[in-house]
Amino acid sequence: MRASVGDHLVQHGRVVGQHDQVSEVVEVMGREGNPPYRVRFPDGHEAVMSPGPDCQVRHREKEQRL
Hints:
By secondary structure, the chain is mainly beta.
């Protein structure tokens, strides 16, 4: 998994009825785009995440084309 600043990290809900959590990557702390990432959630709080298999990166360039 590789991400850049400005990409969105989507953590999919693990149980029925749980919504996906979307956060913005504000800092890449690993080498060459690898985790961990500092992310900012819509409510403004930040966290350091090392995403697991229930996450995906939505790259900024692809989102702008949609």
